[in-house]
Amino acid sequence: MAQAAGPSTKAMNFGPSAKRLLARLAPHKLELVLVVVLAAASVVLSVIGPKILGHATNIIFDGIVGKQLPAGITKDQAVASLREQGQSTLADMVSGMDVVPGTGIDFGAMTKVLALVLGLYVLSSLFAWLQAYLLNNIVQGTIRRLRTDVEEKIHRLPLHYFDTNQRGDLLSRVTNDIDNVAQTVNQTISQLLTSLLTVVGILAMMFWISPLLALIAILTVPATIAVTAVIAKRSQKHFVAQWQTTGALNAQIEEAFTGHELVTAFGRQREVEAAFDQRNEDLYQSGFKAQFISGLVMPAVMFLGNLNYVAIAVIGGMRVASGTMSLGDVQAFIQYSRQFSQPLTQVSSMANLMQSGVASAERVFELLDEEEQSPDRSPAVSPATSRGRVDFDRVSFRYKEDQPLIEELSLTAHPGQMVAIVGPTGAGKTTLVNLIMRFYEVDSGRILLDGTDIAQMTRDDLRSRIGMVLQDTWLFGGTIRENIAYGMADATEEQIVAAARMSYVDRFVHSLPDGYDTVIDEEGNNVSAGEKQLITIARAFLAQPSILILDEATSSVDTRTELLVQHATAALRSDRTAFVIAHRLSTIRDAHLIVVMEDGHIVEQGTHEELLERHGSYYELYNSQFVGPVAAPA
After folding, report:
1. Does the keyword section mention Transport (predicted)?
2. In the chain, % of residues over pLDDT 90
3. What is the CATH number of the domain that holds 62?
């Protein structure tokens, strides 16, 4: 089993990636403005609440103290009396209070204050709900566009990308990483916006109540920022590694599950389990380090907040005793100090979530930034006729610059011909077909379809003229009818049945309980390998292409069915061209032209009889299959 590359531990560039992620919210500018307004209104109303509640505390405290003072005198007289009695501290405190000697708690005034606070909190909650509703729409719309962009990007990527990247890692980017981005954006924007506005509002109220105590409270801000920055810097690389190891683990699981039968047949379960355990351990280590280190932020910030709370409580109590502040103001300020540290703690605790989300976002952006296949020519050219003549004119191609594969290849396939391509593994047979389909672009030379250079055609136009059946069959979850109709979206029932009969699908369909309405699962496990291959052949027949490409297309069918399919193919290729890649030479004996390739070059071409008479490469291949192994040269 192929091994995935180990994850990088290099920390990514957090700032630009986060900015790029936020830029995707740009289409919702007006809604975002409304979200900010609603959030600000909610915060303002909630921030005013403690100050008003402080007034209720003053009413209660004033009533309690006033009840203990003699009735019938003024506050100044009461203060003077207390000083004469040597109670200067109590006199200072009473002088700073709005007290009426001999009068108890004013329950009417307190009721009005409490009703006002209740109304403010109800409105604040309503605005917060509206803000959350709008923000959820914004985030989900943004993530929907991101998923759409990724889906469209995948269809614009060249085949080279899928040949060089593991499918499991690609699936992880499209699913796990985008889901993580959605969760991050949804949670952090709302909390971050509310927290920042709350900090600003609380600071304003604290400076209004007591500039001295406000300055003491602010001292925790730089300390909080410093602690968060240090911890975030250490945890960021582990979040990057966490999501990269997640992709690597998904790739290994997808690979092992896809090849489960092969793994079992060769008894390699222990090796697969060992590989899984290693990747699982890597994910555990990176995930543990990322969460543990980032999790240190909240306890550190809470500790700083508690120190701040103690300082404010002590100094505030001294100022109440001196009469320079009311008890209600101190109570409100203490409440503000707790609220002030809470949003700072929330912002700090969101550091791990933001780092994780931005790490996932960068993996998605890496996919979006991948080089796309070259655009189609504009204006494009389309062949005047559709007969299927294919000319290779001095075509050269190589996957890697320093490894030549196909060099100066020239070949002509006439309409109605069956051109068989044979040769040892790695000779370039499938590459030749990939060049016809423009899965890869030639390095030099031309490929002509009915006299038109395929590089001047649109890919859709070119591929609409080609029907391709691969050795590895692909069926999607749906009925047999739907799988056949995949070759022609507007096919009629008669056309589907005709293609099924031509490819001998009709022979086994009637033995199934639901016939053509039999539902095939996504893996096609409820039909045999040969039946799956016949369905894919029927799909190609239905498309009625100018060129038919069969890449070992009958490798999974029995000999008798293979013979029947050959006859069907012969009928289909009337006035069309068929390219057949074959390893079993018995299937291509009646080919009009057999092309023998070695190391990207055509070493022989001719009919079956002509090539046997030459006693060359084809002769050796044929004898190795039907006569016996050819002796190795001395």
Report:
1. yes
2. 2
3. 1.20.1560.10
